[in-house]
Structure prediction request, 168 residues.
Amino acid sequence: MEVYRVGELFPHEQFCTGREQHVAIVTNSFFNVLMSLKRISKKEKKLFTNGRLTAYLFERKDITFLVLDFGEGFSIDMSIDASMFDEEFRREWLASDGNAITLFLVEASTGVLEAMRMIGVGFADEFREICSRHAGRTDIERQVRLIQTAFTTKEMMTHARASTRFSA
Prediction:
């Protein structure tokens, strides 16, 4: 079992690359999100921890995106490539009813966990259903890049299929 402590190194060393990135860490029941940013401002940390948050489900060409809007222009989008799952894990993951996502905010330059937040999205079943169409596909990564080139994060929010709002 992984232990996460604010102020300590993020325990998944493979994600501590020194680069800014947004990564899905897939779990048996759903997934978590690592937001690795450089020079995290006090404002970003406050918005991440206590701000109003809206999570969106955006989909194009059977590719799902989780879009997180923390407000005041602080937002990210990211995708999951379920074609990488082995068959047994895919069955278990698709059958899960979990909807919890733990968000981790990590300072990219140090690998230190700055903040955590847990949310539960109302669109988890729809997200999984779309991901179920990834089996056998080899073009997911390329499609993700093409979609991210065609749509800004803000446009993804505007054209989202579903959303869940969280109060401050």
